[in-house]
Design brief:
The complex is a heterotrimer.
Chain A: H1 3-24, H2 28-48, H3 52-76
Chain B: H1 4-22, H2 26-47, H3 68-99, H4 104-111
Helix pairs in contact in B: 1-2, 2-3
Chain C: H1 2-21, E1 35-38, E2 43-48, H2 49-61, H3 66-74, H4 76-99, H5 113-135, H6 144-161, H7 169-194, H8 216-239
Antiparallel strand pairs in C: 1-2
The chains are: A mainly alpha, B mainly alpha, C mainly alpha.
């Protein structure tokens, strides 16, 4: 198992854990933050897969702006899922 | 060798589909749609990967590059994804201001 | 009930997709093997599409970054469509959130002095970094889309630090319209000068220099300003209720 495989597998497992947390948690704010973590790890995976353009875009939009927009929306509505 | 990148992105897509089917909270459903978007982007980029290749920026030192076409596709898809997500969230906010709830069941009950 | 149904459907979809994608080799593809099949002449061309972009892209467009060459030059018309979709989504968010804007007055609490001063200091540098990303789009990773996002996130910082701050809508509209007009104008200029919409009519210059690659930097600056002002408009609309 080389370094590429090892780093990729660790990041992928962390990403899937964050995705399951985003799916199951009742607190919508925590779900949005878990979604931001998924986006951040995916941007690192893009960098590992030799796509730096996409990695910059995903890091600034997926983990930054999209999380902020979702938190604004939660602020205008409710925080807890019933 | 198992192509674990494909399995990971398929798993992201499937978790997104599960959220859309099983959850009733509208913001949760939008989180699921966003997750499906991310999964599709990861799938496209990993299909274009070439082992030992470098990023397609030619400065004369390398000869083997990864596929540039999926990267160009995903670059614009991410920006479109976030703007469409903002549109969906603004519709959800409007629905909340009119019905006072985010749960699909309660919204449906209110309409009857 | 719905959870079990959703779980069963999800597992079925996972099995089908995994069986489909497990046969695609990961990383072992040879880009030169994807021959383009021409149905008119019934022949396979020698050059595959990605290999053609990689081999000839620098010569044909003058851009060092091949992803930029594909986004702006080879498929520039597609990018124009994407920017239009972005404009429509931004307009939609603005028009939906406008209805709820004057509903209630929000109690605003000022952030402390450290946050206000630091964000005022950082704002200029983040804008400069965004401009750097989209000006050097044809040389280094980056380009109009991430650069515009970085500019929008600098405005997001101001929105978070100053609760009463809001970007002037008129200025955002002017920046967005000018950027869109530049994009379409460059395209129409190419139509008149060379006969093709979005033709790269300027001289290419030396590769890896800032002033190279013809119209690609011009279009990417326009895309960067447009994406930046539109995402700022979305953030402004989602920030919502204020007096």
């Amino acid at each position: 198992m080389d370094l590429f495989t090892l780093v990729s597998l660790i990041l992928i497992i962390a990403m899937l854990i964050a995705a399951v947390v985003a799916a199951e948690i009742k607190d919508l704010l925590s779900a949005a933050i878990a979604m931001g973590i998924v986006s951040l790890i995916v941007s690192i995976l893009f960098y590992i897969l030799q796509a730096p353009d996409v990695a910059i875009t995903e890091a600034s939009i997926g983990a930054g702006l999209s999380l902020a927009i979702m938190i604004f929306a939660i602020k205008h509505t409710e925080r807890w899922e019933k | 060798m198992i192509p674990y990148y494909y399995l990971a992105s398929v798993a992201l897509i499937v978790i997104g589909i599960y959220i859309v089917i099983a959850k009733k909270n509208l913001i949760k459903i939008i989180i699921g749609l966003d997750m499906m978007d991310t999964g599709v982007n990861l799938l496209l980029i990993s299909i274009g990967y070439v082992k030992g290749g470098t990023a397609p920026i030619e400065n004369g030192n390398y000869t083997l590059y990864v596929d540039p076409i999926p990267q160009a596709l995903v670059l614009t898809a991410i920006v479109i994804g976030v703007s469409v997500m903002a549109l969906a969230l603004s519709i959800v906010i409007g629905l909340y201001k009119n019905t006072g709830s985010l749960e699909l069941d309660e919204i449906r009950r209110e309409r009857k | 009930m719905k959870r079990i149904l959703g779980g069963v459907i999800a597992v079925l979809i996972f099995i089908v997709l995994a069986l489909a994608f497990v046969h695609i080799p990961f990383g072992n593809i040879d880009l030169a093997e994807y021959h383009y099949y021409n149905p008119v002449d019934n022949e396979h061309t020698q050059d595959s599409v990605p290999q053609h972009y990689l081999d000839e892209g620098k010569k044909e467009t003058g851009s060092t970054n091949i992803v930029t060459a594909v986004v702006v030059d080879y498929r520039g018309f597609d990018t124009l469509g994407e920017v239009t979709v972005l404009f429509l989504a931004s307009t939609g968010v603005g028009s939906i959130m406008y209805i709820f804007e004057k509903e209630k007055r929000r109690k605003v609490r000022r952030a402390n002095a450290v946050v206000e001063t630091a964000s005022k200091l950082l704002f200029g540098f983040i804008i400069l970094f965004g401009a750097y990303i989209f000006v050097h789009g044809h040389l280094t990773p980056g380009g109009g889309f991430p650069g515009g996002a970085v500019i929008a996130s600098s405005f997001l910082l101001l929105y978070l630090a100053y609760p009463r701050f809001h970007a002037e809508h008129k200025n955002l509209n002017i920046a967005e319209s000018l950027a869109g007009l530049t994009f379409v104008g460059v395209g129409i200029l190419g139509l008149f000068l060379a006969g093709y919409f979005l033709y790269n009519f300027l001289p290419f210059g030396l590769p890896t220099y800032l002033f190279s690659a013809g119209v690609i930097p011009v279009i990417y600056v326009a895309v960067g300003v447009k994406v930046g002002s539109e995402l700022t408009g979305i953030v402004d609309a989602m920030m919502g209720v204020r007096e």
